[in-house]
Design brief:
Blueprint lengths: L5 H7 L6 E5 L5 H8 L5 E6 L2 H13 L6 E5 L14 E7 L1 H10 L9 E6 L3 H10 L2 E11 L2 E10 L8 H6 L1 H5 L3 H20 L6 H18 L4
Parallel strand pairs: 1-2, 1-4, 2-3, 4-5
Antiparallel strand pairs: 5-7, 6-7
Helix pairs in contact: 4-5, 8-9
Length: 229
């Protein structure tokens, strides 16, 4: 049986029964774990580069799961074929903008029954805005720390009506904002410190627009952190 790190174990909690498509599959660890633990019946492991694609195929073969896990070479959601019925799509270990790009470019492959399980390393706000544009509503969020890195997990499902979120919910996460924990505060204190450092480096004359953007972002974070206690 394969074991997963804390980050992917948390992602695995949200996999629905049926078929999982894991995009950017990193040795197919998540699909192998999901099938072995009966979280799903079958899986697709998608890789865009030949080397990781071959490594994933070898790993699936080594675990005797070639009948249940199909390793496919392709860009983003292109590894999902028109006749596939997908219950869960996982995209992990990437920046929010890249995950957003994959979803936008592959939106024709997103069906109403597909759950999205997305783990971004940075800039999750961009991802949340894209989910709104694609009519996906956020049903779960988690924030966790592993080996000194903070990760956010966003789980979403299709909605007939376009979801409505405030600027606070898009930036901080609608569910994370309601359930603030120590990791949440740690992340945003760190972001605040970084933004204040950037602000000091900006020339008010030549970087006026960027300075205004950073100042507004600082105000937003300080407003949320003011309720820490």
């Amino acid at each position: 049986m394969i074991s997963l790190n804390k980050r992917l174990q948390t992602v695995s909690k949200y996999i629905q029964p049926g078929v999982l498509a894991d995009i950017g599959s990193d040795h197919a660890y998540l699909p192998i774990y999901a099938v072995q633990h009966h979280l799903c019946n079958n899986a697709i492991a998608g890789e865009v580069i030949e080397g990781p694609f071959k490594a994933a195929k070898q790993n699936v073969h080594a675990h005797h799961l070639t009948q249940q896990i199909d390793v496919r070479l392709g860009d983003g959601l292109a590894v999902i074929y028109d006749n596939d019925v997908i219950d869960s799509i996982s995209i992990c270990g990437m920046g929010g903008p890249l995950i957003a790009k994959i979803l936008t470019e592959g939106q024709a492959k997103l069906s109403k029954q597909t759950r999205l399980i997305l783990q971004s390393n940075i800039q999750t706000e961009t991802l949340r805005k894209t989910l709104v544009n694609l009519n996906f509503t956020i049903i779960a969020e988690e924030i966790l720390i592993e080996k000194g890195h903070i990760y956010e997990i966003v789980v979403a499902k299709y909605s007939d009506e376009k979801p409505q979120y405030t600027k606070y919910e898009l930036k901080f996460g609608p569910i994370l904002l309601r359930n603030k924990n120590d990791i949440f505060f740690s992340k945003w204190h760190h972001e605040l410190t970084a933004l204040k450092h950037i602000k000091k480096q900006l020339n008010p004359t030549t970087h006026q627009e960027r300075l205004q953007e950073v100042s507004l972002e600082i105000d937003l974070i300080e407003e949320v952190l003011a309720n820490e206690n």
